[in-house]
Amino acid sequence: MPLAIPQRLTRRVLFVAAALVCLLGLISELLHYGAGLSWHFLGLFSLSLEGNLPTWYSSLLLFACGITLHAVAAGARQQSAPFKWRWTLLGCVFMFMSLDEAVELHEQLGTVVKLHGVLYFSWVVPAGVIVLLLGLFYLPFLLHLPARTRWRFLIAGIMYVGGALLLELPLGFWAERAGTENLVYVLIDWVEESLEICGATLFLLSLLEYLAEKHGALQLAPTEAG
Question: In b/e form, how buried is each residue of 90-102, taking b as 16+ CB within 10 angstroms?
Fold first, then answer.
């Protein structure tokens, strides 16, 4: 039996959660580096640190995207829809991204070669190549999607990749120049992590809407019913 979820409530919960995680992260950085406070619990909300609440939430968001992608893939296989296996592959990619967010596997790529300047975090080079190849591979799939879904996926992807990869360039430049224990570094990192959270949130909402419209496995109540 299809699961009914109020559309407005779903959007509200995800947007409020994203805003709360990002706002608490910003406040923690300003209190620590701006006001000089060193309360231990501030680290629980920092977007610059790992193994805390923002890390858990980001990993959970990516995992939810992976689960939803596999649900879309199951519906596509039942209907013999085009590109059905690419939904499955994309679901596996997001499952891996969820794991990577939790344990930082991507950092190991930076040990292959040491670079400097904007490429100080050298893992962005192999990661950028992988993202480019994946984007080219998925271009026909993207063009096949309905226009509304396609544009929402693109916006979400630009936000996420812009945060995860592009902002690593100024972040690496500043880290090499001034280190990581300063307000400028954590503010750049905060923008990066916030873009990732917002991009993943938009992608999840777009997936839920697509799943409801195309496969009927999920029913989103009308906006007025929120």
Answer: bbebbbebbeebb
